Amino acid sequence: xxxxxxxxxxxxxxxxxxxxxxxxxxxxxxxxxxxxxxxxxxxxxxxxxxxxxxxxxxxxxxxxxxxxxxxxxxxxxxxxxxxxxxxxxxxxxxxxxxxxxxxxxxxxxxxxxxxxxxxxxxxxxxxxxxxxxxxxxxxxxxxxxxxxxxxxxxxxxxxxxxxxxxxxxxxxxxxxxxxxxxxxxxxxxxxxxxxxxxxxxxxxxxxxxxxxxxxxxxxxxxxxxxxxxxxxxxxxxxxxxxxxxxxxxxxxxxxxxxxxxxxxxxxxxxxxxxxxxxxxxxxxxxxxxxxxxxxxxxxxxxxxxxxxxxxxxxxxxxxxxxxxxxxxxxxxxxxxxxxxxxxxxxxxxxxxxxxxxxxxxxxxxxxxxxxxxxxxxxxxxxxxxxxxxxxxxxxxxxxxxxxxxxxxxxxxxxx
Length: 415
Description:
With 415 residues, the protein is an alpha+beta fold.
């Protein structure tokens, strides 16, 4: 009856194994220990997960890609059904299919059934809604049991990252743990030391936890709305003075979890009707081309790639020739900073609130431990560093720290 730590993320997933050989992340796709939180349903046959799912979609195989599965937890969407292939499944069932496949791959590697799990969770699944937060955790626990876990418990993701970081410490310190994932930004102020690491009960070392439902997919969305969607007609005028084209199509197209809702046939009928009343029908034609080809996820992936690239370069051209020959969106760091300024401000405000709750001044933080892919984004990084400017910056395993920390916790709880 083996135990594991499971970090089911909005963008990526890891699963850590406990055993006589120590703690390690399972290889979930080839040699990779991370696997994208994505699933692809073909019209018939078995679904694909991870990179294989993304590849099937990008190569144009018929079927449906679903990403950002975690974002429906705590929302009314969880139990709604959606068409996949020739059937309909609830989003709950889709998550179960994905997590069941991840679990099976880890079991194949370890040769043992995984029955005990410490599941990672954000500090808040849903901002300002304790009932929604409770429902989200209960739903995730129920799904874990559906896929074969007998003992299910939870740990906050930033605390898990702290446990991974603590393994390498030589002295006591107060750390601010920043875990910026695909869907949430989570923070903890924790007292850590080599001696404390051996203790089972650590509640007294956790000085404060806080979080906000902002993550990498939100930065994708705001960048897409600001720089790409205007090329498809967002903000363009109707023929009737004083009116713009309805914006809901564009916001859905820019939001990972909403894209598939545009493929119901009704949207294209509405766009054909709308086209007669707009001042720029050519822009509506571009929008319709994306939806008719069901390439919304392609667009989202290219925006995500551009956002990541802007961590390394000052400006990038996002090629949209597949929408219309010669079409390109030119995006630079100033545009990224402008469109995401409010998100970065809210992240900074959450950190400040967490420090106040902990009763620790910015100068009292010894180390800033950064984990999660979105800590690489310049606006996010600036907001975190400004919160504790004198602290030592420690780069964690971008995608693996939380999973390893959850595995540390699994060994303690179930070992």
